[in-house]
Amino acid sequence: MERTAKPKKLWKKILIAIGAVILALILILAIAIFALWHNEISTMTSIKLLRERNDEHLDGAVYYMDVKGDFYLDKFVAQGGASSDKELINFITGNITKGLIDMSISESDIACSSFTAASEEGDRLFARNYDFSKTNTCIVRTQANKGRHASISTIDLQFLGLDVNKDVDGLANRITCLAAPYIPLDGINDAGVACGIYMTYQGGSVPTDQNTEKPDLTSTTLLRLILDYADNVEDAVEIASSYDLHDSAKTSYHYMVADASGKSAILEWVGTSDQTDTDGSKRELVVTYNDDDAHIGKAEGDSEYQWVTNFIVQPDYYESDDEKKGYDRYQRIYEELSLTDGIVADEDAAMDILAIVGRRSWNNDDSNGCTVHSVIYNLTDKSVLWIPNEHYDEADGTFEFDLE
Fold first, then answer.
1. H-type helices in 117-266, by residue range?
2. Burial of 241 (0-12, 13-18, 19+ CB in 10 A)
3. Which helix (H) or strand (E) holds 127?
4. Which pLDDT tens digits describe the chain residue by residue (404 residues)?
5. Pairing mode, if any, of strands 284-289 and 62-67?
6. Which of 10, 42, 100, 226 has its CA 20 to 30 A from that of 377?
7. Which among 404, 403, 369 has a CA at the least distance from the CA of 389?
8. CA 283, CA 240: separation in Å to the nearest integer?
9. Which contacts qualify for 91-98: CB closer than 8 Å, 24 or more apart?
């Protein structure tokens, strides 16, 4: 008579078979996730804390992230960019976060200062203060990819909806950080091109909203394209000229861009005057180069340096200087630079000028409570000197990076 397997042994074989199938499915799933998200996984694991929050001092935390892969920028350009924050968010969630994380871009009130200068050794410098209130920031490094430049830029993580009073931890927050390359405030690329963005409050903070046949860019994505594609200032101007600009966060902005040759320019989208500049669709791009000093009443070519705060520099745009946001900081920076015709000893000396107009030490003419970060980009050797929250005299509050 044929013997049959005992029920206990039969169930054991069944469980082993089921377990093998489950392990195989897990392995297949893991391979699929890695194939789909290997760059994103590497990027998320690169996030590290450089400086902790200090809630008592109203200091935000500082993070660093090394972006792997091309973060789909070529695809963004190929689709014609984005004409609104909503379109940008849809692109990011569909491509970078794979539709897993809902995102938003927050409004802000940004009062900032920048200038260009040369060191005594001849290096070209681009300096920037980002004035706001307590917020967490991230220094983002991107790689050279498919003919695009590597870059280092600074991101305000509050723009991605991350809580300023919480650490950036957990999978959801790290996935959200994958969108950081699309919201730079300032940065430098490996060609020695630096750029920054600054509020202008035009026409009562009416956003620029051009509407021609050109493709579209939002405020921070224009800066991203400059960092990735521009070899020099003229390339940056060409990029800006090739797109309709749609200002983000319901306000208006202008830009300053500079390269290692010493050339710089302020890019502004303007109407006739601040009193009548209330239709963002009618604004046109005007470029003011650093050898054109008509807006400060000097002869053309008098200075090689340039500086900017939060008002339009075009002559006769305002009825009086009292209407110019950040004019006091603008004048103070000019006082310092004019003493030496824009020559500073080194990066530390340029940082000293930024410290003079830091929010906590300056007689504020606006509501911003602190300078969130101060940075000196050396366009000659492609290096970065970066200080958070006005901790200018603290060794552990000073960070240095190098693109080369």
1. 171-177, 202-205, 219-229, 233-241
2. exposed
3. strand 124-132
4. 455 556 767 777 776 767 666 766 666 655 555 555 789 899 999 999 999 999 988 899 999 999 998 899 999 999 999 999 889 989 988 888 777 667 776 656 666 899 999 999 999 999 999 999 899 999 999 999 889 999 999 999 999 989 999 999 998 899 899 999 999 999 999 999 999 999 999 998 999 999 999 999 999 999 999 999 999 999 999 999 999 999 987 789 999 999 999 999 999 999 999 999 999 999 999 999 998 866 555 545 556 899 999 999 999 999 999 999 999 999 999 999 999 999 999 999 999 999 999 988 776 555 557 899 999 999 999 999 999 999 999 888 899 999 97
5. unpaired
6. 42
7. 369
8. 13
9. 92/178, 92/179, 92/182, 96/40, 96/71, 96/72, 96/178, 96/179, 97/175, 97/176, 97/178, 97/179, 98/36, 98/37
Q: What three-state secondary structure class fits 291?
A: coil
Strand partners, 127: 115, 376
Q: What does each C-alpha distance from 6 to 3, 11, 16, 113 come to in angstroms?
A: 9, 9, 16, 82
Residue 46's Cα: distance from chain center in Å? 18
Is-contact 359 370, C-beta < 8 A? Answer: yes
Adjacent-strand bridge partners of 118: 124, 343
Q: Whose structure tokens read 């689709």? A: 79
What is the rounded CA–CA span in Å between residue 269 and residue 209? 10
Tokens for 188, please give them. Answer: 């430098």
- Residues 232 and 344 sit within 8 Å (Cβ to Cβ): no
Specify the residue for token string 């206990």. 8
Token pair of 149 as six digits: 């430049």
CB 224 within 8 A of CB 140: no
